[in-house]
Every structure is written in structure tokens, then in C-alpha cells.
Amino acid sequence: MKTPTLEALVQSLVPKAYWVPAVDDVDSDSLRVSIEQRRSSDGRVRWAVLRNDLVLNVKGQWEYEPLPSSRDEAFLKRCRYEELGLACLALMRWLNNLQKEKHDPPRRRPVRKGAKVRPQRS
Fold first, then answer.
1. Closest Cα to residue 32, out of 8, 58, 62, 5?
2. pLDDT, tens digit, for every residue of 55-102?
3. Phi and psi for 46 in degrees, rounded to 5?
């Protein structure tokens, strides 16, 4: 399964959709993602990218979504998108990073000749 284009993804979201990306090594239920329309207290429509009880913030990181009464303005600014297209872009960026991590594991520094090797911490 190929990653869909942004256009195809946006067309499929009316106004709530679920999508599971093709990632072989990871439990697919943990990657079930939805983009949902949310109305703010002032009546404006915003969008949230959700995965289980997590929400994707503008930095591409997942964070817990607090109860509505505990959501402050800083949270809404970080975790709500003004337009559906912006939410889709955030999701596509996260998916691209996920695919890169899968195919390009982090590199370790080469060990210098004669250097002491420390055991890794668990």
C-alpha cells in the first residue's frame, strides 16, 4: 500500500475519517489516525489529528489531549489547526518522518581506535 497523496487524503476526509498507514513493523491499531472537526468555545471550526487518546501538535509530536475543561489557549494553539489542509499536512509530515525512521535508523558515532567503550544504559 502506497502512502496516498495529500489531495487524495483531503478528498477522503469529510469531516472525519480513519486511515491506517502501511507500516509493517508496528501494530496497526496504534497507528489508527483520525482527523476530526472540533468547534472551539468561540464557535470557530478547527481540526485535530488524533491517535487513540493522543493529539498531534504543530511540532509533529503526540501529546495527551486533556478533558475539554482543562484545555487552555496554549494547548489549542499547539494542537488545533485552522484549516483541514493544515491538519492533513501535519499528518503527512508525521507519516513521512515515521517512514524515514523505519528505513534510516539513527546512526551511531564511530568508535575511535583505543577508546573505551561504555556499556549502553537500558
1. 62
2. 999 999 999 999 988 989 999 999 999 998 899 899 889 888 877 766
3. -130, 170
3-state SS assignment for residue 46: strand
CA atoms of 49 and 119, how far apart (whole Å): 39
Cα–Cα nearest to 120, from 112, 111, 25: 111
Element counts in the chain: helices (H) and strands (E): 3, 5
This prediction has a pTM of 0.65
Domain coordinates in residue numbering, the chain: 6-101
Phi, psi of 20 (to 5 degrees): -115, 115
CA distance 46 to 39: 6
Point out which residues pair with 18 in neighbouring strands. Answer: 34
